[in-house]
Write a structure and sequence with these properties.
This protein has about 425 residues and is α/β, with parallel strands linked by helices. It contains 15 helices and 12 strands. The protein has 2 domains: about 270 residues, Type I PLP-dependent aspartate aminotransferase-like (Major domain) (Aspartate Aminotransferase, domain 2), CATH 3.40.640.10; about 140 residues, Aspartate Aminotransferase, domain 1.
Length: about 425
């Protein structure tokens, strides 16, 4: 065990690596922001070695790779990758320009034409679009199966199946997938398969982050992240990451070099210096507030249903308590809420428009995991690629005072609630409490 490993994860995220050839520890307290597109090579031999490391799929280049050119590798980005691999309890990590770049690279370097993916029916809208619009053109079939219906997953697997793909919690419904149960099934199905055809479990852990869930420890093979969200935390940087076994690392670096979707060193630096050290602090505060807001929403007569893993009414509460655990083992239900309004009482678009017009602490905007509370309508915005109607609302809780968020939501509901609403006995009913 290294000295660093004797400390709690929260402390490790503040301090970063104990020592590294990528950071001048004798002088810098904060890691330096490297910004050099190309690197001095002191001999032709060294240059050749650097290119070989990338071109020949070398799996482990040690602590001091030969830096050649920013698109291949560079120090700030690789310090961030080391930290992300460690907190996800994975062997290695490769970062990308965005979450979508990370998802398409992880799948792109695993799948070949003729392969099949089994994916959960509800996914982030652009991942759905990747599967609907692009994979059929590449000869890759994507079957949509409920990952909690293990008999259906078993029935859908064929010799061509390679990847099981899902988010947990699911964007935007917050449904959870039981990763341990799926691992058990996949181990059974993998028993007769050769190493290069083994089924792999890919999970997008963007909503929970490693603060709230470590999917590799639960049985996943590959973890994906949009760093743009909770891990970046401040809404200033786009980024993505794949945390994977060592055996996949070199292929991902080669893919990134050739497809070019690198994370900029400036974005990596901001995530390393601001995002990671404040991750636990932000998420603890946000989930404290999310619990209060979800509890309040659930009491409103004009709200038909609230999905939040921290509510006693959450349909998968027992699984949530087993799977969503923070670095200290405490329940971590997260900062995302999904709720449905009763359309007889409140028109969802009118509610959202009222917030956009009048609220100060709640902003109508997509994205999530920001310091600011963000609200949107998935069916017409982030998930419009599904082409489905529906008025459910996604709320990403920020760092504001809980009472201000509740007051802004209440004002909007009060403004747009239909005043003619009546209960079964004909008495007037208040839509908002
Ligand atoms: C669950 C999830 N995965 C992936 C992404 C894509 O991330 P990015 O916008 O960084 O490409 C998003 C974006 O909202 C997301 O919510």
């Amino acid at each position: 065990m290294t000295k660093k490993q004797q400390y709690k994860v929260t402390t490790r995220l503040v301090h970063g690596p104990e020592h590294s050839a990528k950071w001048d520890f004798s002088h810098h307290v904060t890691p330096p922001l490297s910004s050099s597109t190309t690197y001095r090579l002191d001999s032709a031999k060294r240059g050749a070695r650097g290119f070989q490391e990338f071109g020949q799929l070398v799996t482990d280049v040690g602590e001091t790779p030969v830096y050649i050119y920013d698109r291949l590798d560079e120090p700030t980005r690789s310090i961030l990758e080391g930290e992300l691999a460690e907190i996800e309890q994975g062997e290695s990590c490769v970062s990308f320009a965005s979450g979508m770049a990370a998802i398409s690279a992880a799948l792109g370097c695993t799948l070949v034409s003729g392969d099949e993916v089994i994916a959960h029916p509800v996914l982030y809208g652009c991942t759905h679009s990747l599967f609907q619009n692009w994979y059929p053109r590449q000869g890759i079939t994507v079957k949509r199966v409920d990952m909690n219906a293990l008999a259906s997953v078993r029935a859908a697997v064929t010799e061509r199946t390679r990847v099981l793909y899902f988010e947990s919690p699911v964007n935007p419904t917050l449904e959870l997938i039981d990763v341990r149960a799926l691992r058990k099934l996949i181990d059974e199905l993998n028993a007769g398969r050769s190493e290069d055809r083994k089924l792999l479990i890919f999970i997008d852990n963007t909503f929970a982050t490693p603060f709230g869930q470590r999917p590799l420890a639960l049985g996943a093979d590959v973890v994906l992240h949009s760093l743009t969200k909770n891990l970046g935390g401040f809404g200033t940087e786009l980024g993505g990451a794949v945390i994977c076994p060592k055996s996949m690392h070199a292929r991902l670096l080669l893919y990134r070099k050739d497809f070019g979707g690198i994370l900029s060193s400036k974005a990596a630096w901001a995530i390393l210096v601001y995002g990671l050290p404040t991750l636990a602090l932000r998420l603890k505060r946000q989930q404290f507030t999310a619990r209060k807001v979800a509890t309040w929403l659930e009491k409103q007569p004009c709200v038909a249903r609230v999905s939040y893993p921290g509510l006693p009414s959450f349909p998968q509460r027992e699984l949530a308590e087993r799977q969503l655990l923070d670095f200290d083992g405490d329940f971590a239900p997260g900062n995302m809420i999904y709720f449905e309004l009763d359309p007889a009482q409140v028109e969802p678009e009118a509610f959202i428009d009222s917030l956009a017009r009048s609220a100060y602490s709640v902003t109508l905007a997509v994205s999530l995991g920001h310091t600011k509370t963000l609200i949107e309508l998935p069916s017409s915005m982030t998930h419009s690629s599904y082409g489905k109607q529906g008025g459910a609302v996604r709320l990403s809780i920020g760092l504001e005072s809980p009472s201000d968020i509740i007051a802004d939501l209440k004002a909007a509901l009060t403004e747009v609630a239909k005043s003619t609403n009546a209960n079964k006995n004909g008495a007037k009913v208040r839509a908002v409490r």
